[in-house]
Amino acid sequence: MTEQPVTAPAAPPVRIERDGVVATVVIDRPKALNALSPEVLRALADAFDRLASEGDAVRGVLVVGEGGRAFVAGADIRSLAELTPEEGAEAARLGHRVAAAIEAFPAPVIACVDGFALGGGLELALACDLIYATDASGFGQPEVRLGLIPGFGGTVRLPRAVGLPLAKELIFTGRRIDAETAERAGLVARRFTDREALLEGARATIAEVAENAWTAVALAKRVLVEAAGTPTERASELEVAGFEDAFRTTDMREGVAAFLEKREPRFSGR
């Protein structure tokens, strides 16, 4: 009998790496420039669901693309080519599911962009709380060049990030902007010379966040996400509700007591 060669199982397209309270979600499809296939989208949603189940053991998440050429170059166009309109809607809903999982995550999520963040890649980054980028990065929503429009939240979140006029210009033209322009527009929070400095800076930010009350950070994120784009009166009500909820936490009592007693707080995450 001839032995058949053993085929190694394919590596998962998304993996989670842990370093203390920091988790890194790595999109690992460098040959496809980390394109967002349905498999990748489902894996991303599952990764954030798993991390959320760990509570305050995870104080921040970095999202990175493997390979150095692209954070995420966009949706997987090959997987879109044969879809019916109804299947296209389902594909968009899957992208929105990922964005919702990121926005619901109770700790800050930083998109660490090194290379292209185009189409679905920019939309993924926009769902994160902060975008940090290297000087080599580029951003754009080129969907109209394929006869499409942004489908994973770009028409919603890009105007919030850069303002409606620039968002319209980028979406209508499909134009790309570099990291310096993106930083000036407010899309990129911080810019770094290279990938090593980018990741070091992102981890430093999470370390600084982790010194604070996890309960307060989670409440602040909840209010910021829910209030975005809502009328001022409604947004103010959301803030008041979050402020009230902070008074229900042990961390709030500890933080105020520590301030009055002139000592460092000992937050418990409750």
From TrEMBL:
<dbReference type="GO" id="GO:0006635">
    <property type="term" value="P:fatty acid beta-oxidation"/>
</dbReference>
<dbReference type="InterPro" id="IPR001753">
    <property type="entry name" value="Enoyl-CoA_hydra/iso"/>
</dbReference>
<keyword id="KW-0456">Lyase</keyword>
<dbReference type="Pfam" id="PF00378">
    <property type="entry name" value="ECH_1"/>
</dbReference>
<comment type="similarity">
    <text>Belongs to the enoyl-CoA hydratase/isomerase family.</text>
</comment>
<dbReference type="InterPro" id="IPR014748">
    <property type="entry name" value="Enoyl-CoA_hydra_C"/>
</dbReference>
<dbReference type="GO" id="GO:0004300">
    <property type="term" value="F:enoyl-CoA hydratase activity"/>
</dbReference>
<dbReference type="InterPro" id="IPR018376">
    <property type="entry name" value="Enoyl-CoA_hyd/isom_CS"/>
</dbReference>
<dbReference type="InterPro" id="IPR029045">
    <property type="entry name" value="ClpP/crotonase-like_dom_sf"/>
</dbReference>
<protein>
    <recommendedName>
        <fullName>enoyl-CoA hydratase</fullName>
        <ecNumber>4.2.1.17</ecNumber>
    </recommendedName>
</protein>
